[in-house]
Amino acid sequence: MKVTIDGQSVEVEPGTTILQAARMIGGDLVPPAMCYYSKLKGSGGKCRCCLVEVAKGSDADPRPMPKLMASCVTGCMDGMEVNSKNSERVTEARKSVTEFLLINHPLDCPVCDQAGECNLQDLSFEHGKSETRFIEEKRTFEPENIGDKIQLHMNRCILCQRCTTLADQLTDKRVHGVLNRGDHAQISTCVSAAIDNEFSGNMIDVCPVGALTDKTFRFKSRVWFNKPFNAHRDCDKCCGKTTVWMFGNEIQRVTGRKDQYGEVEEFICNTCRFDKKEVSDWTIEGPKVFNKDSVINQNNYKRPLEKVIIETEKNILLGRDEDRVKISMSGVPLKNSNK
Ligand code: SF4
Ligand code: FES
To answer: Is-annotated flag, keyword 4Fe-4S (predicted)?
Structure first.
């Protein structure tokens, strides 16, 4: 089947979604995704970030689809034509979805461990507005302890349900889920039981925002001060292939290896994630490749820096010199003094 997205065509298998086809093409036309996760069956269809415009349904039925479609749950048809980045309607819709997601999400990036690798931060950077029209109070939740390794910060949750889907599919007994409805909906452990399954730590990796973070790494460092290295160890529970985040010679955090869409390649166990923080525990393979535009790339430029002349500073210094002359007595001739 052939599908065309923003003028670029790709051959896909039946059953491929528009989002997957866009990822096959790659580049700017790939819609953002906050709830879809390729490694989790049945994920997607919750956040509406990935909306696209279907300008032609298929060769057999070329009528356009009247509404914007969630690309992560809409299947490709032969001859389908889709507008993503090229469509103003889509851009406007993504702006609205971003505004909607930010209605209740706190703007606490300066203290949030997810800052620098948060999908919502990236989404707002691209589609967000600098001010909000929401004047009501944001919803808040009482802090809830869900165990000694994972921190749940419900105020930041965007209810993408990736964590519950993961818990459903990866752990043998799901102990948390979405409770209540509408404005009161929240992720909870249902019976306040600790999430102690060996693979529960992966919820931290799939959470697109800072609602689920690693307690063993909390407030230790901003991610852009860490150096990520791919590493592996012999593990009898998981693949043992991880990314270790180092500060000097200290391993501060261990995560799954993520691809260009921020999705882990293989899920890892809690022993690798939380208990193996010594360099001797790991075989370090080398620096992890990260995006050119990533926040982790800050200060990493190798090219020579141009000398920057800051006019304001020059003028301030000039002004200070003039003031100094005015204040000091040094310029006053001795014969005019009272001495
Ligand atoms: S805690 Fe994170 S992963 Fe779970 S629903 Fe909320 S935002 Fe999604
Ligand atoms: S990624 Fe498609 S609806 Fe969330």
So the answer is: yes
Assess if residue 146 is contained within a domain.
no
State whether the beta carbon of 47 lies less than 6 angstroms from ligand 2. Answer: yes
Nearest CA to ligand 2 atom 1: 33
Maximum distance among all alpha carbons in the chain? 104
DSSP state of 220: T
Full residue range of the structural domain in which residue 42 is found = 2-91
Of the three residues 91, 122, 150, the one that is the final residue of a domain is 91
pLDDT digits 0-9 by tens, 155-185:
999 999 999 888 888 887 777 778 888 888 8
> Distance, CA 321 to ligand 1 centroid (Å)?
57
Residues sharing a CB contact under 8 Å with residue 108, sequence separation 6 or more, in sequence order: 156
pLDDT interval class at 336 (50, 70, 90): very low
DSSP string, 52-101: EEEEE--SSS-PPPSS-EETTS-B--TTEEEESTT-HHHHHHHHHHHHHH
Ligand nearest to the CA of 157: 1
Q: Which residues line ligand 1 (CB under 6 A)?
A: 157-163, 187, 206-209, 211-212
- Ligand 1 centre and the CA of 143: distance in Å? 15
Q: Does residue 43 belong to any structural domain of this protein?
A: yes
Residues 243 and 205 sit within 8 Å (Cβ to Cβ): no
Within a domain: 322: no
- Cα–ligand 2 centroid distance for 45 (angstroms): 5
Residue 249 falls inside a structural domain:
yes
Number of domains in the chain: 2
Rounded to whole angstroms, how far apart are CA atoms 186 and 157? Answer: 8
* Beta-bridge partner residues of 254: 244
Q: Kindly compute the dihedral angle of the four CA atoms of residues 118, 119, 120, 125, in this order, to the nearest 10 degrees.
A: 90
CATH of residue 30's domain is 3.10.20.740
Mean pLDDT in the chain? Answer: 88
Q: Tell me, what's the pLDDT at 216?
A: 95
% residues pLDDT > 90 (the chain): 60
| pLDDT tens digits for range 11-66 | 999 999 999 999 999 999 999 999 999 999 999 999 999 999 999 999 999 999 99
